[in-house]
Design goal:
Helix content is 61%, strand content 1%. The protein is mainly alpha-helical. The radius of gyration is 21 Å and the shape is globular. Bound molecules: zinc ion (ZN) (2 copies). One zinc ion (ZN) is lined by residues 147, 153, 157, 202, 226, 230.
Length: 277
């Protein structure tokens, strides 16, 4: 007669312990990445370059301490969701359902370097459409409302998501690994770029040069681009690039004037233009 599997068997307990260790390992790594990125951006823009940054503040409104506490609380909840999704991703990699490679020679340097750019383009597309989805009235309160409590975001808002939004954001990585062969180092660099870009995009300081929106760099977003999204909600949904907002005609009309005002070009003409009511 077959015996029932025991949840207290040594094998089961050992597997459970390993899973818990992996979860805490990923949680610690993601949390560390968050604190390093948000801490560094805050240190550089608010402390080391404080006087310079004051001239480039996008909003005159200042985030309150309770806003920052809320942003950190939800960001930690997000890294917990990321660690949970990572647990399933690692399991799928172990079982051969998902594949990543560790020897550059498998696909060559050209592909390995290009795959990072491809990953950023894919992520930008995923983010734009997931973001628009979350702005649907039926889904907004459940998914994205917490992130928009930050009317004047700070770098600590980088991961300030309700768990359903965190889950939607976390699903990108396994989907990307499913679609593209990716080297472990490419994934590591991508995750670093993502969190740094996120922390900078929520800093409220327009540190990009004034010429940013007048040349080819205009295809990339700026801090003002995302800051305006936090102020006005209904436009500027993109993450790294301005392409999707332009193709879908969702770029806010006053993006460039607001950018120029924050970056210093028109400071005396309309300094309060983008203040929240
Ligand atoms: Zn945001
Ligand atoms: Zn939004």
């Amino acid at each position: 007669m077959a015996t029932k599997p025991s949840f207290l068997s040594p094998d089961y307990l050992e597997t459970l312990l390993t899973q818990i260790q992996i979860w805490f390992g990923v949680f610690a790594l993601d949390t560390m990445r968050y604190f390093i990125a948000a801490g560094l951006v805050s240190l550089v823009l608010y402390q080391l370059l404080g006087a310079w940054s004051a001239q480039r503040r996008i909003q005159s409104r200042i985030a309150r301490p309770q806003d920052i506490r809320r942003e950190i609380f939800y960001s930690l909840l997000t890294t917990a969701v990321y660690a949970t999704v990572a647990l399933f991703t690692i399991e799928a990699l172990d079982r051969g359902i998902l594949h990543k490679y560790d020897d550059v020679a498998d696909y060559g340097w050209t592909y390995t370097v290009l795959s990072l750019g491809l990953l950023l383009i894919l992520h930008d597309c995923y983010f734009y459409w997931a973001h628009r989805l979350m702005h649907l009235p039926q889904l907004f309160a459940f998914t994205h409302r917490i992130h928009h409590l930050s009317r004047t975001p700070t770098p600590w808002a980088a991961y300030s998501f309700a768990p359903p939004e965190a889950l939607l954001m976390a699903l990108f990585m396994p989907m990307a690994i499913f679609l593209l062969p990716l080297h472990g180092m490419v994934i590591f660099i991508f995750l670093g770029i993502m969190i740094i870009r996120n922390a900078m995009g929520h800093s409220g300081i327009e540190f990009h040069p004034q010429s940013w929106v007048d040349g080819p760099l205009d295809s990339m977003t700026s801090v003002t681009h995302h800051d305006l999204h936090h102020q006005k909600f209904n436009g500027n949904y993109g993450l790294y690039f301005t392409w999707w907002d332009r193709w879908m005609k969702t770029e806010l009309k006053d993006y460039k004037p607001a950018f120029r005002a924050a970056a210093g070009a028109n400071k005396n003409q309309n300094p309060q233009q983008h203040q929240l009511s």
